[in-house]
Every structure is written in structure tokens, then in C-alpha cells.
Amino acid sequence: SQMCCVSMPRKWHPGLTVVVEWEKDPNTGDSVNWPKPRYSDAWSEAARVHQSKYTRHRVVVEVAPYERLGAITLHFLPCDQVKVSADQTYPGIANHPYDYPRKMEEPSVCPAS
């Protein structure tokens, strides 16, 4: 939900990579069970404990070839895989380098990297 600071060359070249870092909430939606009222001391403590369980990830990813630099799109896939495009098309539009479903199930066992 946040993006910061991407600098890309106008022209794609082989070996072009980006570093992607993110945090992942292992239990989204858990806040419905937190103490009420919202932002009380008990609620804030539940939030702190919950956030301490976030996992942190970092990968170096090749950028898909592009003719003209456009929107930077990160595709977060199951098993903490990431694909990056930087062209003037968008997911679902012709010529976009990736055509992944918007929602994908995490397999019970991820392939070894």
C-alpha cells in the first residue's frame, strides 16, 4: 500500500534489477478481535503485539523488458515471489508482460528458491 522512491532508466537494458523490500501481515483481519474502544491502551497493545509478528522480506528482481518507461508495477505472487514491470501498459491490457489473476491462493508447500 505504500511506494517510495523508484528511479528507472528511460531505456530498458538486460540485467536491469530493482530491490524490493516489504512487510507481510501473517494474520490480516485479526484486528476485529482486538479490545474496544479503538486506539485505547489495550487496543494499542494488541496492535503492537500483532505488528511484532509481521515478516520482513527483501528480493532483487529483474525488471521485465519495456520499450518506453511508464508505470512501475509490482506483482506480489504466492510464496513471496515478486515480478516487476515498468512499461506503459497495465495489468489486463494487451502487451503487459504479466497476466496473473488478481487473487491467487498460497500453495501448502512453496517451491524451493
Q: What order do the helices and strands come in, and which of them pair?
A:
Elements (H helix, E strand, L loop, with lengths): L16 E8 L16 H11 L3 E8 L10 E5 L3 E5 L28
Antiparallel strand pairs: 1-2, 3-4
Strand share of the residues? 15-25%
Distance between the termini: 26 Å
Task: Compute the number of strand runs.
Answer: 4
What radius of gyration results from the CA coordinates?
Answer: 18 Å
User: What spatial form do the alpha-carbon principal axes imply?
Assistant: elongated
What does it look like?
By secondary structure, this protein is mainly β. It is 10% helix and 23% strand. The chain has one helix at 41-51; strands at 17-24, 55-62, 73-77, 81-85. The strands form 2 sheets. Strands 1-2 form a two-stranded antiparallel sheet. Strands 3-4 form a two-stranded antiparallel sheet. A hairpin with a 3-residue loop joins strand 3 and strand 4. The longest helix is centred in the middle third of the chain and has 11 residues, at 41-51. The relative contact order is 0.19. The model has no long low-confidence stretch (mean pLDDT 90).
